[in-house]
C-alpha cells in the first residue's frame, strides 16, 4: 500500500473506462478496474498497464447489477489499496427497441447497471471521503443525459437519472472537499456504440452503413468522439485544479446537444 491516490473505475475493461484507467495510471493513481470480458485479455491489460506506469492495478469481476457485488468490490479494493479517493462510474449497457416492444427485463437491467450502480458505489465510499475531506466522483453519463433519441427509453431515462444523481450528490458533498460531476459524451467509438449499429439498422430497417451515418448526423462535426478526449477530461476533473467544478454535466459531444 502506498500514499498514492486510489481510484475505483467501473466498466473499465474496455472502451471509455479502460481509457480513463490508463490515463489515471499514467498520472500515478492506483486503480481497481472492473468489468466483464475474456479473463486472459483482462489480465494482460491489467498487468501491462501496471508495469508500464509502475502503479498497483487490481481487477474486480463485480456485477454492477448486484448491490452485494458492489459492496464487496469496494471493501476488497480499500483493503488492498487503501481508501478510495476517486470514483468513476462508467459501467453501462444498452438495448434498442420501440417502447411498446421493450423487454421489461432489459429495462430493469439497464436501470440497474447505468443508474443504480452509481448510487450504490457512491454510498459505499462517501463516508470515507467525507472523513478525509477529499474526493472526486465522476459519473460517465451521455449526451442522452441531456436530450433524447427514439428507441432508447431505458438508456435515456437512466442517463437522465445519472445527471440528477450527480447534481444532488454534489450539493450534499459541497462542503466536504468532494466534487461530483458528470461527463456527457456524444457518440464515442467504443464496443458499446459499435454494437448499436446492427441493432439500429434492424430497428430502422436500413443498412448498417446508413445506421452509422444516422448516428453521426446528430453530431454537427460529423465524427465520433475519441476515447482519449474523454479520459483527458476525466483526468482534469480529478485534479486539484478542478476543485471549483462540481455539480456540472459537461458535454463532449461534437456539438450534438447545442442543437
From TrEMBL:
The keyword Oxidoreductase applies. Its EC number is 1.1.1.30. InterPro entries: 3-OHbutyrate_DH, NAD(P)-bd_dom_sf, Sc_DH/Rdtase_CS, SDR, SDR_fam. SUPFAM superfamilies: NAD(P)-binding Rossmann-fold domains (SSF51735). It is an enzyme of class 1 (oxidoreductase). Belongs to the short-chain dehydrogenases/reductases (SDR) family. This is 3-hydroxybutyrate dehydrogenase. It comes from Aminobacter anthyllidis.
